[in-house]
Amino acid sequence: MIYTVTLNPSVDYIVRVEQFEIGSLNRTTDDTKFPGGKGINVSRVMKRLGVESSALGFIGGFTGKFVKDFLANEKINTNFVQVSGDTRINIKLKTNVETEINGLGPMITDEQLGEFMEAFKKMTKEDIVVLAGSIPGTLPPTIYKKIISLCKEKEIKVVADVSGDALEEVVQLKPYLIKPNHHELGDLFKTNIQTPEEALVYAKKLVNQGVENVIVSLAEKGALLVTENDCYIANVPKGNVVNSVGAGDSVVGGFLSAYTKNAPLEDAFKIGVASGSATAFSMELCTEEKIEELLPQIQVKKV
């Protein structure tokens, strides 16, 4: 089983306003609501590609019920810990510029954290754990370290799509796969990365430090996959980018969906890139049909 971890899920409220004016009454032209959170997005993408997963995290209140019911309707397994506060609402305002307002999230008690950690004690080395997103201020900053240490003891592969301090800590624990974008990779090494060649240098450094595989997304410049033995670069297909939310998560979901079907890493990488692009070119997360449509445009080259 693949377990996706979203420590601070949300209801993503996507609002479109033609001409937004601060201090005035604004009326929406369109609005939608989806369950939000990087791990949840990974689960949703994998489901669309025929791979089962179980979503873990903390939910509460009427917003938490929305998240749980939405995922149940998509036939996605969940094992959330119920908390007393409301799951947060994140506002994505789409107008002439895109603006986001993210909620804080509910308080989590030590007892609820203990209940959450019990899930990892029941896993086996056949499982994969995906850690995605930031650590909320209501949880100990060392929680990812604790989860990875438990997984290492049980020989469970860990995939991490995190940034900032969490990425720095995760790298030290040598996970199976990490997926930073070029900005996050640059932040990790306190430098500015602009080109695939620059990204390749630092991705190799992470592999030399013990990370087994590194995927670096470089927006319109493509993506890299660096392993212990090989390095690959992929272009991105042509299309109109309409959605920045969930594209990186879709790369992880697409990659894992192919990897769990025993595809070679190079092929899994290609499907991951197609999945990320398919989401970027869509109003919502990618579909299998859109991924298949884009795959012929993607060329993966060994470097």
Written description of the protein model:
- With 303 residues, this protein is α/β, with parallel strands linked by helices.
- Helices cover 37% and strands 24% of the residues.
- The protein is built from 10 helices and 14 strands.
- Strands 5-4-1-8-9-10-11-12-13-14 form a 10-stranded mixed beta sheet, with helices on both faces.
- The protein is globular, with a radius of gyration of 19 Å.
- The model has no long low-confidence stretch (mean pLDDT 94).
Summary of the model, kept short:
The protein is an alpha/beta fold and 303 residues long.
Supply database-style keywords.
alpha/beta; 303 residues; four-stranded mixed sheet; ten-stranded mixed sheet; 37% helix
Strand content: 15-25%
Radius of gyration (CA) equals 19 Å
Order of helices and strands: EEEHEHEEEHEHEHEHHEEEHHHE
Task: Give the tally of β-strands.
Answer: 14
Quote the average pLDDT. Answer: 94
Structure annotation, total helices: 10
Inertia-based shape? globular
Strand order of the largest sheet: 5-4-1-8-9-10-11-12-13-14
- Give the helix/strand class: alpha/beta
Helical content (DSSP H or I, runs of 4+): 25-40%
Instruction: Describe the sheet with the most strands.
Output: 10 strands, mixed
